[in-house]
Design a protein that fits this description.
Oligomer: single chain
Order of helices and strands: HHHHHHHHHHHH
Number of strands: 0
Structural class: mainly alpha
Radius of gyration: 19 Å
Mean pLDDT: 85
Shape: globular
Amino acid sequence: MQNLTPAFKDYALLILLAAIFGLSFIFTNIGVQQIPPLSVAAFRLFIAFLITYPLMRLAGQSLPAAGSIWIPVFLSGLFGNALPFALVSWGQVKVEAGLAAIFMAVMPLATILLAQLLTSDERINRWKMAGVLLGFLGIIVLMGKQSLTSIGDELFRQLAILIAAISYAVNAIITRKLTSLPRYSMVAALMLAASVLLLPASLIIDQPWSLTPGIKSMAAVLVLAIGSTAIATLLILTIIDRCGATFLSQINFLVPLFGVLFGTVLLSERLSANAYIALAIILVALALSRRGQNQSASTQRP
């Protein structure tokens, strides 16, 4: 049963999850220093599957039977895990962890636009539109004049992270079709599907057996698999169970803040002034879009 008034424990879980996601940009930054981005993403997912599968079995659940349900499972595995993990890992070869976290904050704004186009029950209003427009302004400020006027490696890597955020938004629409699955079964199935999509490409392209990464990079991938993938997914399910998806959506305000904070403290990143201005603009955009969602919900109540 969901809590209409979230307790201290619920806010603690939300902050913990935001911190885990914020740290994921740090560990991705460390991992890609000695391990190819594709392999970082692939092994992160495969290790997460090896963790979640026995948890699923202990819960008395099993993977979905062969059938049409695997179509949305694989689509969700692609857009919610395989594609964004690979794109973010590749992008962070050159893009700072703090900047990557700010880029990912546009995901809920992209979800609003996609829901308007692909669903019939998520209508846009003036507050949502204002949030989307302001969010795009934040992206322009974040990318900066130099990236926008010159085509270079950094621009493409920034765009990769932006596409990853849009990919997460696509997944938010797809996962509506997976709510009928038992939760542990759903998580294990998604990790398996994403691993199947990425692992063969990693083995063929990167030939990971020929790599000699250091302990630091290998530990970073292990932490990503355990913390930012397996534990984070289970925390998401717990929070939704206790307080619902609307309460969980507040994490979008916290993750970019943690990402910037950890990048500054742990990696000694020094972001430009426009990055902090962009962060403020995007947070305001999220606040406006949230007001629009609350307004839509109130008009739909009987």
